[in-house]
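Worked problem 6 (solution included).
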Amino acid sequence: MRVLFVGDIVGKSGRRILRASLPDLRTRLRPDALIVNGENAAGGAGITPAVAEEIAALGADAITLGNHTWDHRELIPAIDNLPKLLRPANYPPGTPGRGSMVFRTAAGVAVGVISLMGRTFSPTQLDDPFRGADHEIELVRAEGARVIIVDFHADATAEKQSMGWYLDGRVTAVIGTHTHVQTADAIVLPGGTGYITDVGMTGPWRSVLGVDAQTVVDRFLTQMPSRFTVAGGPAMFNGLVLDADDATGRARAVTPLFRREPADTDVPAEEEEKRR
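Solution. The predicted structure is:
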């Protein structure tokens, strides 16, 4: 089977290129499942119920999150009613939402998806993601999943690589998100787990990680606080194609995707709805 994983969606620009790219990708790649990281999909930080439903309507089977999960307060009472939305599983017990799910493809293959967040450099007090992974793997396997995809949303390369080796042979893929720059290390590890340190972002490329570039440069130059806004202009699409054996759950191949609209693409600057 084949899974298409889309890197961190950033604002309207990311949602626009996702919507525009999917018809061609579905025709050429024929994915059996679509997983999207929606961590920055609403205004460049977090997600709202409306944006989650928008991405689900495009055919996403699962939408993973990360450190900006709770940036929009309206998500807190709504998340339990959004079955495709996953917040990191290693938030403390009692946190709204869930960290893993199982869905079935059109062919009836049970696919488990697990969302986890790293602790290195994170200001959020989180439970151990490694032991959290053990727990969530048991849960999705109990629901019949052999194909298991882990989105590990983390800063540190070493923590991500460690998670890849820790789960090698036990999950189908460990896909790194959060740092927004696609890394050149996609590989199938010896135990059959597909791995990439960071799948990249889907959003405006004339930017610093999706944010208006001059704003970020000025902050470095002046060390003064400033409000980050999502950049306008042409966008890029980052993702990963995962080919797997649905009988064994082993990855066969991992292929990064990278598309960039030309610099002269006429895309008017889009003013985000109040952090939507």
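Discussion: The longest strand covers residues 235-244.
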